[in-house]
Each structure stands twice: as structure tokens, then as C-alpha cells.
Amino acid sequence: MSIDPALLDNLAKRRATIAAAGGTDKLAARNAKGIHGARERLQLLFDADTFQEFGAHAQHTCHRFGMEKKELPYDGVVTGTGYIAGRQVAAFSQDFTVSGGSLGFIHAKKIWDLLDYAGKVGIPVVGVNDSGGARIQEAVSALSGYAGIFYRNVALSGVVPQISVIAGPCAGGAAYSPALTDFIIMTKSNSNLFICGPEVIKAATGEQASLDQFATAAAHASISGNIHLVAEDDKHALELSARLLSFLPQNNLQDPPHHLAAPVPLADVPAFNDIIPATNKEAYDVKQVVNLLADDGDFFEVQAAYAPNIVIGFCRIAGVSVGIIANQPNHKAGVLDINASDKAARFIRTCNVFNVPVVNLVDVGGFMPGLAQERGGIIRHGAKMLFAYSSATVPKITVILRKAYGGAYIAMCPVELGADAVFAWPTAEIAVMGAPGAAGVIFKGDIEKAGLASPEAEAARKEGKDEKEVKKIALASSAAKEKRAEIIAAYEAEFSTPYQAASLNMVTDVITPAETRKVVALALRNTLSKRQDRPKKKHGNIPL
Ligand code: HXC
Question: Residue 493 has what pLDDT?
Fold first, then answer.
């Protein structure tokens, strides 16, 4: 006996309805604008024919406001798993053609179930957000739906990588699910991300603000720092998701996909020798160092436009997947300010939870001085870096390129914060502060004394000038200037080098810049088996 053809016909009809999404006309209209449908997006994400859908026949349960007459295919969200470069990944994709991708209870439950599945199977999640937000007709059920998603985003945090793609509207409380994930990628046009829109802002504060000013990918990438990557379009956003995942493990119990068959490079790379400028007041682009370190010069930077005084991103060094944290002398002289501290601390913790070793490139003159920084809580924000590095148990390799001054030196992971190896270039200046500042503080008396004995000061005294005026003239005298220069030179010779720190065993080795790739590659290989247990506790209390 074979199956009743009517049953097959029924299934085929249902499948056709599902394939038509919210309407073939709506799909065509979106395609005409260069926007892909929810299913097309998953096809772009996954290896061909690997997608397995969960809940294609799901339907909403709302019986009010005319909803009882509406059929919403798969309740507006496509969920399931597929493979990216041969590795299994869970994904959901909200379908704007189905009631604006709005989130009702079943829509939410499908996402809950997907997140639960990802947690138990131990695979990353990519969520494509394109939704008008809470389905207004479903009221509190929709809110419950979001709450359950947030709860699961948090439960999965540090367990499996979670990536959010914003490829349409993502407004109000809906924005908090992406915010709870590890990375947010946003398409350049056709997407926005905000809590309160222009009308609400105007009504509440009287401010006139357009979405362009605060809700676009450009605004979030450079001003709010809410997102990590800007994509040209849907396809690019999904490619970026795959690229991110290529550096990360499937879950926190695995190592990242290191390519350990790659040989450790043994040859010097002379180009490293030409990067540091002749004087320490000159800037340079630290990405030159990163590009020379990375296999094939292939560095995948994240949050490039936000707090560019620190550079973060992934690469492979002799096949080892690593996170790079580098001060950028080309922007604000590479100082650590509030935003740079937040950016770096978060990235260090992302690397740590996913067992990605970190390589720190140090050229930092200090924390950013200023009233706004002090009032903004630079103490609390800077402390996040100290906390993140100290609590990270992944291999930590630090290379001091040039300046490593004061608290900022400590915030970039010296041996005392658990660096497994610290290498310094001969140009390294490991000190409490730069020589001019130090001379002005600890040798102030000597400089004054030299000035007061100068002919200029003597002449001022004879003219009967008061003590304050004499002192001013004394400090401007050539004798005082000479003394100051002499002291700075002596301080630089003694402290603005790596050798004092090296003599105290705080530096593993002083290396030529040309040796850097070889030395770092070897140190990474040597520490890959690192295991470091900490006392059991619920979690540390990072300053937030
Ligand atoms: C129900 C919705 C909807 C929603 C859109 N639709 N948003 N249905 N609930 N939240 C439906 C529309 O009725 C329409 O249905 C279809 O989706 C397409 O919407 P349009 O308005 O025609 O599209 P467009 O002009 O492109 O505008 C898109 C939009 C707009 C900007 C997203 O629809 C909009 O402003 N929606 C409401 C946004 C909102 O206020 N959401 C609640 C946020 S608060 P038809 O049947 O005509 O095709 C929130 C709280 C979460 O989310 C709290 C969590 C803690």
C-alpha cells in the first residue's frame, strides 16, 4: 500500500505557501531593492544544501485584532541549522515580508528553541534581525518572547559564539538581543538600530534627531560603538559572519580552529626594523606591525572606526588563531581613554571565553588626561582592562614596541597581569612616565638651582625683582634648560629602555624587531597547552 496522494498534495501545497513567504510580490519588491529574503539570506550563509529547517509549519496563536483571519507562514522567522565551511552553525532569519518580521510568541519560541538547541549541541548562532519589533497585536506575549530570548542569549554567552546581523529595522527592546551577543554586524543601508526613534526623542526631550544621526551602521560603528562590523549588503554581512566564526571555536570547551600544520616561521622579517620613527614624538601606524605578524598579512580588524587609538581584531600567526590588541600611535598618540578601554576589555574577554590567545602590542604614553575623562569615569573604564587581562587564562603574549608608561603599561598586560611572555624591542621605554615629565617632577629642585645660579637670575635680583619673578626668569634661563636637557638625557639612558625591566626579569627577552614574528609564533605554540585554574566562584565583579 502506498501513501495517499492527497496527503502528499496537502504537504506540497503547504510547502508552496511557506516558500512564498509573506507574498511573492513582497519578495520581488525587496529583491528589486537589492535586499534578500529571509531564506535567501540563510542560503547565502550556509554551504549549499546543508540547511535543515526547524518549525517551517509554525503558526501564530493570536486571536485578536483580526489576527485570527491571518496566516503568517512559519510565524515570520526561519530557524534551523546548516554548515559554514563544514562546521555546523544554528541560525535564525526574521522575515520582514511576514507581518514586518514582527515578533509574536511563536516567533519568539522558535528562536528560544533554536538557542536551546545550539547550547545543547554546542554550536555558534547567527541571528539575522529584520523586524518591526514586538508584534503589537500580541501585546505582553511578545514582550515575554523577547525576555526569553534575552535570557537565553545570556545563558549562551561564553558558551557558544553568538553573532547578530542587523539587516533591517531593529528597534526598541529588540535591540537588546543583539547587544547581548558577541558581535554585531550591520548592513550599510536598509538597516537601523535604536531604542527610541526620532518622534519619541522629540516628544521626550525636544531634540530633533534623524535616524542617520544615531541609528545607522555608520553611526554605531564610529560613535556609539554598539556594532563591530559594517557590511556593504546582506551577502557581505553573512560573509563577515563566516569570517568571524573562522577564528572561533564551536563552543567554549573547544580550541579555536588553529591551523597547526602551518610551519613556525624561522626567518627574520627585516621590514619590522623600519617601522618605529627616529624620535618618540612621531606617530606611525601600528597596523604595519600587525600585518607583518599575521600569516599572509591577513588581519581581520573589528570595531575599526570606534576608538581607533586601540586596534583589535583576529589573525593567524603560524596558524594559531589569535586576538590582537594594539595601541595605535596614529590616533591620539595611542593613549587609553574611556572608549578604548571599553573596546579592548570587551575584546579580551571575548577572546578568553573562546580560548583564543591574545597578542598585545604596546606603545602607550598613558591614560588620556582631561576633565571629561575623569568625570566620565576613566578610573572605572580603565579598570576593565586590568580586570579583563588579569582574569584571562588564555595564552597572553605581550610585545613592547616603544612607550610603556605608568598605569597604561600595566593595562596592556605586563608579566604581573599574567602575560606568559613579554618581549621588548630595543626601542622600548618602560617607565613610570616619559623622561621630560619625570625630570620636571623628581629633578625640579636641581633645575631650579641651576637656573637661580644663572646670570639671568643674578641680573633680575640686582634689578630688585621679587622672588617669584626671579624664579620665573631662572627657569627660563639657558642654564636651567641645559640642566633639564642633561637630566632628561640621563633619565632616558637609565629608564627609557627595556633593560631596567629586563634586569628585574619582567621582560622575557629583548628582541630585534625583525625577530618578532618568529619569537611570537614560537611563544604561541609553546603556550597553547596552557591551563590555569582559578578559585571557584560564581563570577568576578568586573567594573561596569
Ligand atoms: C505588528 C507590524 C509591526 C509590529 C510592522 N508590522 N511592525 N505588525 N507589530 N510591531 C507590519 C505592518 O502592519 C505591515 O503589515 C508590515 O509589517 C510592514 O510594515 P510597514 O509599516 O508597511 O513597513 P515600512 O513602511 O517599511 O515600515 C517598517 C517599520 C514600521 C518602520 C518597522 O512598520 C514600524 O514603525 N513598525 C512599528 C515599530 C514599533 O513600534 N515596534 C514596536 C517597538 S517596541 P501589512 O499587513 O500591512 O503588510 C518593541 C518592544 C520590545 O519592540 C520590548 C522588548 C523588551
Answer: 83
12-47 pLDDT per residue, tens? 999 999 999 999 999 999 999 999 999 999 999 999
Strand 300-302 with 310-317, pairing: antiparallel
Cβ 135 under 6 angstroms from ligand 1 = yes
Domain borders along the chain are 34-245, 270-430+497-527, 436-493
CA 392 to chain centre: 16
Give pLDDT tens digits for 337-380: 999 999 999 999 999 999 999 999 999 999 999 999 999 999 99
Among candidates 122, 53, 56, 120, which has minimal Cα distance to 89? 122
Q: Which three cell numbers stand for residue 433?
A: 612616565
Q: How many secondary structure helices (H) and strands (E) does the chain include? A: 22, 17
- Which atom of ligand 1 is least distant from the CA of 169? 32
How far is it, in rounded angstroms, from Cα 292 to Cα 315?
11
270-430+497-527 has the same fold as 34-245: yes
* Closest alpha carbon to 128 in 60, 76, 63: 76
Of 241, 179, 184, 183, residue with least CA distance to 217: 184
Residue 384 CA, distance from chain mean position? 14
Q: Which atom of ligand 1 is nearest to the CA of 135?
A: 9
For 286-324, the DSSP string reads THHHHHHHSGGG--EEESTTSSTTEEEEEEEETTEEEEE
CA 336 to chain centre: 15
**Residues annotated as part of the active site:** 172-173, 407-408
Would you say the CB of residue 511 lies under 6 angstroms from ligand 1?
A: no
Rg for the chain, CA atoms, rounded? 29
CATH number of 34-245: 3.90.226.10
For ligand 1, atom 36, the nearest C-alpha belongs to 132
Which set of grid coordinates corresponds to residue 154? 545570556
Which class is domain 270-430+497-527?
alpha beta
Residue 506 in grid coordinates: 619582567
Write 154-158 long-range contacts (CB < 8 A, 24+).
154/180, 155/115, 155/119, 156/115, 156/118, 156/119, 156/125, 157/181, 157/182, 157/353, 158/252, 158/353
Q: Which of 33, 35, 102, 176 to mutate to test the pocket of ligand 1 (most atoms within 8 A of CB)?
A: 102
**How far apart are the CA of 242 and the centre of ligand 1, in A?**
29
**Helices 435-442, 444-452: crossing angle, 10 deg rounding:** 70
Largest interatomic CA distance in the chain: 124
Question: 112 CA to middle of ligand 1, Å?
Answer: 21
- 3-state secondary structure labels for all residues of 53-119: EECCCCCCCCCCCCHHHCCCHHHHEEEEEEEECCEEEEEEEECCCCHHHCECHHHHHHHHHHHHHHH
172 Cβ closer than 6 Å to some ligand 1 atom = yes
What is the CB neighbour count within 10 angstroms for residue 503?
9
Show Cβ contacts of residue 505 under 8 Å, excluding neighbours closer than 6 positions. none
